[in-house]
Amino acid sequence: MAKRPTVYDVAQRAGVSIATVSFTFRQPEKVKPTTRDSVLAAAHALGYVPSASARGLAKGRTGALGLFSYDYLRAEEPTGAPAADMSSTEGGGEVEVVRDGDEENLRAFPLYVDEVQRGVELECRQRGYALLIGGGSHADSGAIITDVAGRVDGLAVFPHTVPDDVLDRIASRIPVVALSESPHHDNLSHVTIDNAAAMQALTGHLIADHGLTDLLFVGDTRFPENGARFEGFRTALRAAGLPVPRKPLAQESRSDGRNLVAELLARGRLPQALVCVTDDLALDLMDMLAENGISVPGRVAVTGFDGIVAGRISRPALTTIRQPMERMGRAAVDILIDRLEHRSEPPICIQLPARLVLRESCGCSTA
User: Fold this and answer.
1) Between these two residues, 72 and 198, which has the higher pLDDT value?
2) Where is the signal peptide (predicted)?
3) What is the mean pLDDT of residues 173-202?
4) pLDDT one-digit tens code per residue, 78-100
5) What are the residue ranges spanned by the domains of the chain?
6) Using CA atoms in the order 319, 324, 326, 330, what is the torsion angle rounded to 10 degrees?
7) Which of 12, 134, 271, 346 is deepest in the core (most CB within 10 A)?
8) How far, in Å, CA of 328 to CA of 180, rounded?
């Protein structure tokens, strides 16, 4: 078997140092284009591929970070769904033809998780780290995340994806950053926003600038960040001298949204505003309201939280709290790399600023 080319072979052929070869593959933006081209040409001629495992052995690290996520992809196409039409093409192939709405169960736009993940990816690339992404349901996540954690130097996790005891065990061995959650007596670093203050600002806008006094909060508040948003809503009502509800209107799925809207209409209880715990929920409710001929914001204002792309291009465009999602992902990578260099230091908590984005769904003009 022929000897595998090494970094020394590439450096000799290109007439550069081995450090320059390393930078070319790990941080190419730091190498002059002409030098980079020479190194890549030498590597191509020799058939050289850089070895991440070899770098890891030298440093006692893998050179990779992990991200444990979940997928917002909704249920797959239901069993027994009608077959799609097929149209022939000139080349003899076939193209599936679907009617608008046939794929309503599939996400069409980047959501919160996607945008945070993009920030993680970009920062890993800039800092010369590979990224390993894993995911699964909370019930079966223990074995999966343990496998991921065994392959990386540090790990970022989205909320409610992994049991707390599993995370604590992993955090005793490698740095772990929890995304979107505030610290709650754990050994993890955190990247989050002030959910309560952000929702208080949004609710205060509806009350002070639009004169609304009948507002309902909609969403599942079992998770800490959602509970904080509900508390921000309650604080704004209390400050305005308005009735403060003890519980929100819980809603977890699209079918729940249809039932919720139908129930409110049947009781004649449609409020002046529906303040939703997420953009996904707000957009679903706007669809339900439109199906029932209810104008947004003419009859009822609707607001969301997160700032996903779909809310910007919906009609009406969605008023929301915009989280700095890409920045959150980048901050998580910064923390992990810093903790790798300073292992004895305590966990870090970063609270990033959020923005109130005023659009049409609350009655604001975007002109």
Assistant:
1) 198
2) none
3) 88
4) 444 444 455 555 555 677 665 55
5) 7-50, 62-72+86-367
6) -170
7) 134
8) 8
**Phi, then psi, of 361 in degrees rounded to 5:** -70, -15
Asked if 155 and 332 touch (Cβ cutoff 8 Å), the reply is no
340: tokens are 């790798």
Please state, rounded to an integer, the average pLDDT across all residues of the chain: 83
Same fold across 7-50 and 62-72+86-367: no
CB-based contact 328:122 (threshold 8 Å): no
Q: In the predicted model, what is the mean pLDDT of residues 298-320? A: 95
What secondary structure letter does DSSP report for 138? G
Give the distance, in angstroms, between the CA of residue 253 and the centroid of all CA atoms in the same chain.
19
Q: Are 218 and 226 in contact (CB under 8 A)?
A: no
CA distance 155 to 131: 10
Peptide bond into 316 cis (omega under 30): yes
Answer CATH for 7-50 from 3.40.190.10, 1.10.260.40, 1.20.1090.10, 2.40.50.100: 1.10.260.40
Is 3.40.50.2300 the CATH number for 62-72+86-367?
yes
pTM: 0.76
At 282, the amino acid letter reads A
Strand order in the sheet with 273-276: 215-218, 273-276, 301-303
Length of the chain equals: 367
Q: Which residues contact 335 (CB under 8 A, 6 or more apart)?
A: 175, 177, 189, 191, 348, 350
Q: Give the three-state DSSP class for 322.
A: strand
